[in-house]
Amino acid sequence: MIVDALTQADLPRCAELEAGIFAGESPWPLSGFVAELRAPHNRYFAVRTAAGEPVAGYAGISVLGPEGGRECEIHTIAVDPDFLGRRFGWALLEAMLAVADAERAPVFLEVRTDNRPAIDLYERSGFVVVGTRRNYYQPSGADAYTMMRPAGGTSDQEERP
């Protein structure tokens, strides 16, 4: 497995994966990926089975705010269903958390309340639920948890003896 920077050439594959993975939740079109990749405050990653292979998953994070007061927001993380269970999602998350850690920034994300595998992954990486967004995902109306990982990855719970 290789994690590297997502490129313009990868975007049609990302849009294809997005349409399948998030079919019921207004998947991003190709133009959405193009805009996200162009934004200077975003970092997007691809995971591949080997160098030069097509994208098997992708993820993106924004770095927001002034230097010394940054926050990060995970925009998306998705893995081709054919590659689930191979730790590709974990590898993408680790790449994004390295960006946040370099900025000494907390990280926020939204996740469907019924997506237990993703919630477990985030909790193992130091995220905690800080709120619920009712009807967040459209058109399904599914709820989302807002989760947060403090700067450096340590929650108050983890700091207690």
Automatic annotation (TrEMBL):
Residues 1-152 form the N-acetyltransferase domain. PROSITE patterns: GNAT. Signal peptide: none annotated. InterPro entries: AcTrfase_RimI/Ard1 (IPR006464), Acyl_CoA_acyltransferase (IPR016181), GNAT_dom (IPR000182), YpeA/RimI_acetyltransf (IPR050680). It comes from the Bacteria. Pfam families: Acetyltransf_1. Keywords: Acyltransferase, Cytoplasm, Transferase. The keyword S-adenosyl-L-methionine does not apply. SUPFAM superfamilies: Acyl-CoA N-acyltransferases (Nat). GO terms for molecular function: N-acetyltransferase activity. Belongs to the acetyltransferase family. RimI subfamily. NCBIfam families: rimI. PANTHER family: ACETYLTRANSFERASE, ACETYLTRANSFERASE YPEA. This is Ribosomal-protein-alanine acetyltransferase. The lineage of its organism: Bacteria, Bacillati, Actinomycetota, Actinomycetes, Mycobacteriales. The gene is rimI.
